[in-house]
Design brief:
Number of domains: 1
Order of helices and strands: HEEEHEHEEHEEE
Number of helices: 4
Strand order of the largest sheet: 4-3-5-6-7-8-9
Structural class: alpha+beta
Largest sheet: 7 strands, mixed
Oligomer: single chain
Strand content: 25-35%
Mean pLDDT: 78
Radius of gyration: 17 Å
Distance between the termini: 37 Å
Shape: globular
Helix content: 25-40%
Low-confidence stretches: 1-51
Length: 184
C-alpha cells in the first residue's frame, strides 16, 4: 500500500469509530457521566452552573474533567492541574467522541479530554497558567480554550526534553478560533 492509501484507510477507520461512538452514546441516553441537555438544547451540567464567570485571585479553581479511564496522558494533565492549585473532579467516560459532540467541539479542535470550569470548556492539554489567565479575562463570546490533538511537550504529554511548538486557541461562540498563546 502506498502512503495515500494508508491515510485514506486510516481516515475511513476514524470516521467509522466516530459514527459508532456517537451512535452508542445517543443510544445510552447521552447523559452518562453527569451530562444533561436542557430543554432549550443548551449545555448544562448536572452539578454545576453553565454560566461563564470571571475568576479572581483567591476564588476556588474547581473543574470537572471528562476523560477515558485508560488515558495516561489525561491523568498526567489532571496531575498538572492539581499541582497548580486546581481542584479536579474526574468523570470517566468510555466515549469521548460523544462527549466532544455533546459539547459542540468540532473534530479539528478536539483532543483526548474535556474540562469544565466556571462555565468554560478547556479541551485537551491546556497549560494551567493559560487556564488561569483566560479565566481572569473571561472574554465575552468565548466558549473556552483548546489545544487540538496532543502536542509533545504540552502538560501531560512530556517526552523528555522534546517540545513541539503549539498554540492554545480560544473557541468563540460564533465558531471562530483565535490564538490565545503560543508555546514554547
Amino acid at each position: 500500500m502506498n502512503q495515500k492509501t494508508l491515510v485514506l484507510a486510516g481516515s475511513l477507520f476514524l470516521a467509522v469509530l466516530v459514527v459508532a461512538g456517537v451512535t452508542l452514546w445517543a443510544a445510552s441516553g447521552g447523559d452518562e457521566g453527569g451530562l444533561q441537555a436542557s430543554a432549550s438544547g443548551e449545555l448544562a451540567l448536572a452539578s454545576e452552573s453553565a454560566q461563564a464567570q470571571a475568576w479572581e485571585e483567591g476564588d476556588p479553581l474547581e473543574m470537572t474533567v471528562y476523560m477515558s479511564p485508560t488515558c495516561g496522558c489525561c491523568g498526567a494533565w489532571v496531575e498538572h492541574m492539581e499541582e497548580h492549585g486546581f481542584e479536579v473532579e474526574v468523570r470517566h467516560r468510555e466515549d469521548m467522541f460523544g462527549a466532544n459532540e455533546y459539547f459542540g467541539i468540532p473534530r479539528p479542535l478536539a483532543s483526548c479530554h474535556t474540562a469544565l470550569i466556571n462555565g468554560f470548556l478547556m479541551e485537551g492539554h491546556v497549560p494551567a497558567e493559560d487556564v488561569r489567565a483566560f479565566l481572569a479575562e473571561a472574554p465575552e463570546g468565548a466558549r473556552g480554550l483548546t489545544v487540538p490533538a496532543m502536542p509533545v511537550g504540552s502538560p501531560g504529554m512530556e517526552m523528555g526534553g522534546q517540545v513541539d511548538p503549539y498554540d492554545v486557541l480560544v473557541m468563540h461562540e460564533d465558531g471562530r478560533t483565535t490564538v490565545f498563546s503560543s508555546h514554547p
